[in-house]
Amino acid sequence: MRGQISLEFSLLFLGMLVVILIATIHPGIFGLHKTVEISSMSLAHAAVSKMKQNIELVSSGDVGTIRIVYVKCPPGSWRANNTILYFNRSGDINYNITAYCDVNISLNGNTTITKSEIIAVKIVKIVQNKVNVTIYS
Questions:
Q1: Less packed terminus of the chain by CB within 10 Å, N or C?
Q2: In this structure, is residue 1 part of a structural domain?
Q3: Roughly how many angstroms between the first and final C-alpha of the chain, as a whole number?
Q4: Domain that holds residue 85
Q5: What gap in Å lies between CA 108 and CA 120, rounded to an integer?
Q6: Using only C-alpha atoms, what is the Rg of the chain?
Q7: CA-CA distance, 75 to 89, in Å (whole number)?
Q8: Which domain of life is it from (predicted)?
Q9: pLDDT digit string (tens) for 33-71?
């Protein structure tokens, strides 16, 4: 029985080969620009989701509650309108991401992010139904 490999090893090897082929073919089929666009949108969605979760967390605390959060963020602009948090990007890649919160949001600081970076966000509950969000980049 020398020189033979097990069935499990054969399946594992073929599975890894298929994964490597799919990973290298995907950018070729859809184009590198589309792959970068999808990655950027995914990162932006994660950033908005993290901001929303932390805003909701601070809003459930007492007045004066402070939380500092670090968010990995792609290039784009943050905006807030009452209880709605927006992140949008225009230019080579266009998208808008919206999150609805339970409290009013006051957005301050550097709301325009020029390159993909980790931003520091200070979230403070000012009054019962209002949260102040300051972005530092």
A1: N
A2: no
A3: 63
A4: 7-136
A5: 12
A6: 22
A7: 7
A8: Archaea
A9: 677 777 888 889 999 999 999 999 999 999 999 999 999
